[in-house]
Every structure is written in C-alpha cells, then in structure tokens.
C-alpha cells in the first residue's frame, strides 16, 4: 500500500498536479516561428494555488507578439464570504531597469490578441486560487513583424503599413489592401436595401418591435459602422461605448477613461480594448469584427469652474490602424447647425435592456430621440450651461438612451442623409431627459490632441471637417492640454470639481467610474461589478 501511494504521488507530480511544480520556466522565442506558453496540465484543468512565472526572451532588438490560441480561466464570481479574486495571467517587462506592467490581469474567457512588447524580454505570471479551475491557456509568442502603431499587410507579415498610409493614393501592400477604402467617407450608414436619404423610422432603422433598448429596437447588423465597444481587457466585459472618428482614433466619454477617484488622470492604455465592426458582443468569431489594443488614452481638459459633463470627452488611440470596410467606418463631426430643436437623432449601444434589470444586451440596439429646445431643457436643468449641452428626449414616451452606455454616440442626419455625431451619452436618464455635452464645443481640443499624438493630423482634420473659428463660448482652451496629459491647470490635484454641481445640473459624480473590479467590489457589490464596472452615479 505504501508503494502504491508513493507511485501515485510521483504520477501526480509528473502530471503537474502539484501547484508549484511543472509550472513556468524559461522560454526562448526563435527568429522564425513561434514558442508556446501553456498553463500546467493544458489542455486539462490547471491545479489550484498555482503560481507560475514564465520568462520569455526574444532575439536582440526584437519585439515579441503574443496571441492566445486557447484561453479559459476561472470566471469572476462572488461567494457568501465576499468577492473572490479570480485566477489571472499578467504580462510585465523590464523598461530602463524598471518592471512595467503592459497588460491588465487577464482572466475569464478573455483572449490575448496582438499584444506587443516594447523590448525582447517579457515575464508572464499565472496565478490560480483554491477554488474553481478551468482548462487554462495556450499562448503563442513570436517576433512581432511590425512595430507598435503599424499593421501587417494581409497575407504579407513582412510588410507593414501605418495609419497615415491608408487611402493616400500609394499602394503600400502588395495586394493593395491599404487602398481598399471601402466606406471611408464619414457618416454613411451600411443600409444596402434602403435609401440612405429617406427619413428614418423605428421600422426602417431597426429590425423589429423586439425591445432591446429602453423602448428601442435591435439595430440592423452593422448599420451603424462607427459604433465601438470599449471592453475591459482583463475580463472582456463591455465597459462603455464609443465611435470611430479617424482610422486610429475612438471618441468616448471622459468618465469611462480615468483612474478610480481621480477624473483628471487617464487609465493606463492596457486596461481597455476596443471592438470595431461588431454587432453581437457574445460572438467572438463575428465576421468583420476586430478587437484592437490601445496605445494611448487622452482626457479632455476640465477647466476650473465648470462641471465635468461640459467636457466629458476622451480620445482612445488604437495600437494599430483601423481598416475601413462595409461594417467599419467613421462618423462625421458636427457643425453649429446640427442637433436643431425638434430634430430626430439616434443613440446606439449595448447597455441595459431595461431600467430594473442589471443585464447588458448582447446585440447592438438603438433608440430615436428628439432634440429639445433651450427653453424645454431649462425646465429640467435651470442652472445648466446650455451652450455646452444638448438635451434629448425619447421620440415617444418610454424611449430613452441605453442604460449603462456611457460614451456611446448620439448622431443626427443632415438633409443629405449624412450622420454627424453631436454628443456622447453622459448623464441623465429615467424621468429626466439627459443633458449631454455638445461635441461641437470641443472640436478644437480634438484637433490639438490628435495633432500632438500622431503625424496623421491631416486625416483627422479631413474626417472632422473643421471650420476655422468655429468654437463657441464655453469651449475649452484647445491649447491648454497636451495629448496624453490632463490639463494640469484645470483644478487642484486631488480635489476635482465633483461637488460643484448645482440644482438641476447633471450629476458630476461621474468621476467615480472606470474602477477595477477589486476596489469596486468592496464599494458597490457583486451586482454592479457584473454590470460592467460602471458607476451608477452617472446614470449610464
């Protein structure tokens, strides 16, 4: 009997059942081909209490690209004793002698896709707890064919192209993919069976009477091609919405982008990813949809003396160019005449199905809204700065913007059927019509921020169609902020103007968002964590 248990113990050790054996190691990435990083026992379940360290080294001077062929860890969950910290994978590297994290803690059913290092040495840590296990992961590592900020030509990994080479009239990819400028013009919906200049109704714009938004409908797949899902990188849970404004820039709300408790400091770019060209967020293999890492997060400045909602905007720079096609294209920027009182506009997103159910919809949905006059808006917000806000209300009773969809665009069509974004979903909801920030007042900030952060300024200008001297009173000083750095003169550090809202103004407590599930769980509980890590103080 002793001999039997001794043999059994050896077998368990060899098969990696011991949490701290057969775990981790040193892995070399070849100049050609790939290396594999596997969890213990893969493809069988990994053990409890694992703590594995993988040291990955590539050729001198090379960058390393990581992609997962399989990824299945314990899903986040709660218990009677509180929130359970789930199993995770973490990527770090050494930069200038310091260890730098370049991924969030990845867990659940997340995928590692096109994650690129800045050097040739990376450390991956895998940690499991003593609860539920899963099949683990198989991650490949290879020399990155393109540096950060560039994308591979399809079918030609050795040839790279950048955002400023897209649709420039020069064929850079052998197959000409960089010049296949399908639907590159802004504001054009993908509705092949409809006349794009015809008036939109709930029937022509959506699928059916099935309610997928509060009083709205499910959208025709890919009919709003600028729509973007901003997802948590660690759990792949949808966090906010956004819109494509250029082929490396996403626009969303500032309160979706900052670190916990400080609305003037942007989150690290690795905390989020964006999914473009998507309709069903539960379909990881949806044709035409792509998940893209971020390179930079830029918050709009917050001048002292105003509420955060007036400049509740954030720019996301993608780590590689966005290739336009029938399902993916930019929205147009507004001018002073857009969003006229009485005009019908549209909001889209993947937010709550209804007010009482804390559950996101899987498929994109939409709702038609009516722009209110200043007089109508003043009835709900007597102290609001209406030069910087636009109020909308459901076109019919019971309709309203999607709960939980901060950062999603509100768009209005002009007489030619071209859609322009007039604001982002920021505040309000329920019985009070939302008052969202006017995008027109921050156009100069967008131009300045993108010029400081990229050489592709002309493409952004063209997409935005900026008019010189178009800023209006109340617009933030476009020269007051450098891309990637919040406006240091806008308020005293550590004392954001979160308490400055007055009666009738939107809740400026939106600054309590974008929290990690660890700290958020302690404050708000499991239900709100599962909801998608957004603050209820913002309404959405």
UniProtKB/TrEMBL annotation:
GO terms for biological process: proteolysis. Pfam families: CUB (PF00431), Trypsin (PF00089). The keyword Disulfide bond applies. Residues 23-144 form the CUB domain. The lineage of its organism: Eukaryota, Metazoa, Ecdysozoa, Tardigrada, Eutardigrada. Residues 213-451 form the Peptidase S1 domain. It comes from the Eukaryota. Residues 477-505 have a biased composition (Low complexity). PROSITE patterns: CUB (PS01180), LDLRA_2 (PS50068), TRYPSIN_DOM (PS50240), TRYPSIN_HIS (PS00134). GO terms for molecular function: serine-type endopeptidase activity. Keywords: Disulfide bond, Signal. Residues 1-19 form the signal peptide. The keyword Oxidoreductase does not apply. This is Ovochymase-1. Residues 467-505 are annotated as: Disordered. Gene3D superfamilies: Low-density Lipoprotein Receptor, Spermadhesin, CUB domain, Trypsin-like serine proteases.
